[in-house]
Specification:
Blueprint lengths: L1 E2 L2 H5 L2 H14 L8 E2 L11 E3 L7 E3 L7 H16 L8 E4 L40 H6 L4 H9 L2 H11 L11 H10 L6 E6 L8 H8 L1 H15 L3 E7 L3 H16 L4 E4 L4 E10 L8 H8 L23 E5 H5 L1 H7 L1 H5 L9 E8 L5 E6 L4 H8 L9 E6 L5 E4 L9 H6 L8 E6 L4 H15 L5 H18 L7 H15 L3 H5 L2 H19 L12 E5 L9 H5 L5 E4 L2 E5 L9 H5 L5 E5 L7
Parallel strand pairs: 1-2, 6-7, 6-10, 7-9, 11-15
Antiparallel strand pairs: 3-4, 4-5, 8-9, 11-12, 13-14, 13-15, 16-19, 17-18
Helix pairs in contact: 2-3, 5-9, 5-13, 6-7, 6-9, 8-9, 8-10, 17-18, 17-21, 18-19, 19-21
Length: about 600
Amino acid sequence: MVGMGTCGRAAGGMKVFDALDQLLQADKVKAELEQTGCIGMCSQEVLVDVQLPGRTRVLYGNIKPIKEKHLKILEQIVKEHLIGGEVVKEHVLGQIRPENGEKPFDDIPYYEELSFNSAQERIVLRNCGSMDPESIGEYCARDGYKALTKVLKEMTPEEVVDEMKLSGLRGRGGAGFPTGLKWGFAAMSRSDVKYMICNADEGDPGAFMDRSVLEGDPHSVLEGMAIGGYAMGAHTGYIYVRAEYPLAIKRLKIAIAQAGERGLLGKNILKTGFDFEIFIKQGAGAFVCGEETALIASIEGKRGMPRPKPPFPANHGLWGKPTNINNVETLANVAPIILKGGAWYAGFGTEKSKGTKVFALAGKISNPGLIEVPMGKPLREIIYDIGGGCPGGKAFKAVQTGGPSGGCIPASIIDTPVDYESLAQAGAIMGSGGMVVMDENTCMVEMARYFLNFTQEESCGKCVPCRVGTKRMLEILERIVEGKGKEGDVELLKDLGEDVKAASLCGLGQTAPNPVLSTIRYFQDEYDAHIHEKRCPAGVCKALFQYRVEDPFCKMCGLCVRKCPVGAIQGGPKKIAKIIDSKCVKCGVCIEVCPFEAITQVDTHEKSET
């Protein structure tokens, strides 16, 4: 089994798959070669899993097909493990704990014991990386569609809604509205036509939770939609997914076709008289279409722009009919809740934030990937125990939660529990689950500028506070990082930010100032250094630093002169190097290549004498 999610393919999964196929044929090995989605350990891709009859499944990691040595590793795995029955221990990551009496291998840790996995609880990700996402048979073998069968044959719609309420599940798209309550509103709406929509318009920088679920376990989302449709009386569902996710769309189409062929979607499902069809709507990748009224407008063929609420979609949604919208992760939780009960699910998490949450760990983190942890898990455990801290031994500085509309939580409050209430109190939001980690070399002013630039470009422009307010805020931030900040800029950013939050029409504008306000709240000293001292403490803002050659250390080797991509360094053999500031683009290549550490970065106001 080869990891063939987007992360696996980017690392060369398709080449590994082809190479294994050729090796199996060459050695005439009778083995089933399958693809799977992301198991979460993106940093270890390409992952290759091997399972022999009666033995536990073993994971091999970091198989890179572009190097000859890795092809030899594949040959070794085939000959020693598949043919010889002995695990190649020098390349193994772990083994999956036996569930059906398989015999484990000695001296190999279980997958759950690895530091990346030991604190996780996989409910949404239960099947990701463990089965072929294009096989409905494998999904059914893992209790797939049992929950749908149960609700259609044993439960009334009201009982389904009550079970969801009991679970305490809140919408995982970011707002955190109770799912059972939302389903109940749609169920109470009187109409002969209702719609169920899956919001798969994931567009946050650094977020890939929904994509991974769709690529790794698409049937779980379809089953959740069908159960939701039954609960509220809807017979038509739409999955709104951005066209930038071609692999997710491909696997969704396969899954919908397979479910239809087995009588699990379409007319008279399981001969119960319930009809439910699902269609895919590909979006153009507009961030604002994550807002439900803009998403509905886009499905209707209109420009994706929000409208004021009320009326809410539960009463007046798609084409004026009652509509329920849930996020991918929310829907993937539904089947386990039905099978194991709402009380079981409510046993995870905190008093007000029940269950688990999937996060995409990205940025300056040693173990980037996809994780699922119980609500309330402290940030410290996520950053260090699971993520392995920042690479290179650098200090953790902050983490951005909630994507471009979220906030930065500093190292000083790293023990903050990750739940809706605690994050809000810290000035951040849960969002859909993106976590971008920053180390000591991150400039928080530049970070705020980056995220605000994203949301400003994604603003649909319908309301003035968002369209103009974010533009003015971005202009101020751009001045500050260029060393042109002035007295009163911080106060102006605060005022504008609060006004944009209070007056914007939809969630985009209402949350866009969060990165700015949270970085001012925790890192105002960095703003002050940029504005008053014309200095970037992290040494990131190019307008505020320059490079200098330290004469005593320069050995006149000329390496920096040869490597400079823009010819900004004069010198050479037997001649001290000299940097021409007017030509220098501050790419940092000279510092990287200098073997004598003779080139240093200094603040712009410190005059270079070279």
